[in-house]
């Protein structure tokens, strides 16, 4: 593909991503992959170049654009003017290059995020908000977690000297960009799993120990479940539940590779979770709720999430977070703990949800925990790319007193 053809391909991918963001469709990565499944003439360098172009534009354009072309032009004019030279196409040669520029045609001014999202993030970061948001829009590193059931970090770093110990997570390692983890013998031996360092730290806060009964309420494909099983030394009872059949069905293979045998998976009916969890009422030593959220802490990986999130959508997420927290309180035994995690940096999804729960739920109180990123024990903490080099998370722990 010529540079101009790559630009046209990027614009077409952007159009698909914009439409999906408006309708709740597939993620950007998925749409880019789909685009190239019908264009097998494009080599790996072409696909990589187009993908990089697409994500450069998405990171540059914070507000939902009207079209891929308008977004591309706005990005090019502000950040990479040489890209404007690629608009050389003519109507009789569609697809080979973007059509020539027309004076006064629409373009989108670059920005960090929609204004209301920036206002919410200023509540978190204050005057440092612009710098913090730029860090959120950088490129995410590749983090791995060493499975302590199958090996230890020092041995792995000797085996794979290109990896480096993570700054905070005791079992974390950071891999070089572009590493294909699934080709490593250590992966197939169950020694490592891909997991962001912030996610590892969130699991650490749960404080799970061998022999306990632990519930991972929103387990997804099981990343945190695997980390909990390792913390429990594969002893005890670990229930991994979710309403997403597809994600939950991916877990057994991961569990087998990691040598985990204590996990019981439960597929839940949305809004009717108690049907499958009622037998656990008041029995759990630990409950982890990694709740559905806006994902503002993962913009490095999904920058188009800024285009998807609306104020109405945020209100629905907050209502679901409150509902899941209330459900979680019914599972915790007296003296047990509930850990609330969101990969969001919006205070409305973090501190505000914990305060609301404590106000309406007698018998629960904030519970102090230690985490490597904090010099003293805390009852809640926030992780961010700018301050900690990992995805953004809000983490809080509560204790049932009676």
Give an overview in words.
The chain has helices spanning 3-23, 28-37, 44-60, 68-79, 115-125, 129-136, 153-159, 185-188, 197-206, 223-231, 245-249, 251-258, 274-277, 305-308, 311-329, 351-360, 385-388; strands at residues 142-146, 164-165, 172-175, 192-194, 213-216, 237-242, 263-267, 284-290, 332-342, 364-366, 380-383, 393-400. It is α/β, with parallel strands linked by helices and 402 residues long. It has three domains: 3-111; 142-194, Alpha-Beta Plaits, CATH 3.30.70; 197-400, Rossmann fold (3-Layer(aba) Sandwich), CATH 3.40.50. The termini are far apart. The mean pLDDT is 95.
Give the tags.
about 400 residues; alpha/beta; Alpha-Beta Plaits; Rossmann fold; 8-stranded mixed β-sheet; 4-stranded antiparallel β-sheet; 12 strands; about 40% helix; globular
């Amino acid at each position: 593909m010529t540079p101009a053809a790559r630009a046209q391909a990027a614009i077409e991918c952007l159009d698909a991503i914009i439409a999906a963001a408006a309708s709740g469709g597939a993620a950007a990565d998925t749409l880019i992959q789909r685009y190239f499944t019908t264009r097998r003439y494009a080599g790996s360098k072409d696909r990589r170049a187009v993908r990089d172009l697409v994500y450069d534009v998405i990171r540059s354009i914070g507000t939902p654009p009207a079209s891929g072309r308008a977004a591309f032009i706005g990005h090019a004019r502000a950040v990479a003017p040489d890209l404007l030279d690629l608009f050389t196409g003519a109507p009789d040669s569609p697809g080979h290059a973007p059509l020539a520029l027309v004076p006064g045609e629409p373009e989108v001014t670059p920005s960090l995020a929609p204004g209301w999202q920036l206002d919410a993030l200023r509540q978190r970061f204050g005057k440092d908000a612009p710098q913090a948001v730029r860090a959120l829009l950088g490129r995410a590193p590749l983090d791995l977690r060493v499975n302590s059931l199958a090996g230890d970090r020092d041995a792995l770093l000797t085996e794979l000297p290109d990896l480096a110990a993570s700054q905070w997570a005791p079992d974390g390692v950071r891999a070089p960009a572009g590493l294909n983890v699934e080709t490593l013998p250590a992966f197939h031996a169950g020694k490592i799993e891909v997991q962001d360092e912030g996610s590892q730290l969130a699991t650490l806060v749960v404080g799970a120990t061998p022999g306990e009964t632990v519930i991972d309420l929103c387990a997804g494909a099981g990343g945190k479940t695997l980390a909990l099983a390792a913390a429990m030394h594969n002893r005890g009872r670990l229930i991994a539940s979710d309403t997403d059949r597809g994600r939950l069905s991916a877990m057994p293979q991961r569990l087998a590779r990691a040598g985990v045998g204590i996990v019981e998976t439960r597929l839940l009916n949305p809004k009717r979770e108690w049907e499958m969890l009622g037998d656990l009422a008041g029995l759990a030593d630990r409950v982890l709720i990694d709740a559905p959220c806006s994902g503002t802490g993962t913009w490095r990986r999904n920058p188009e999430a800024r285009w998807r999130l609306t104020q109405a959508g945020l209100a629905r997420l907050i209502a679901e977070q409150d509902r899941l927290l209330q459900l979680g309180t019914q599972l915790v035994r007296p003296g047990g703990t509930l850990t609330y995690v969101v990969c969001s940096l919006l205070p409305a999804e973090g501190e505000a949800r914990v305060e609301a729960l404590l106000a309406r739920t007698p018998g629960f109180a904030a519970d102090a925990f230690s985490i490597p990123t904090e010099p003293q024990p805390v009852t809640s903490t926030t992780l961010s790319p700018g301050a900690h080099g990992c995805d953004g998370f809000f983490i809080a722990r509560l204790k049932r007193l009676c």
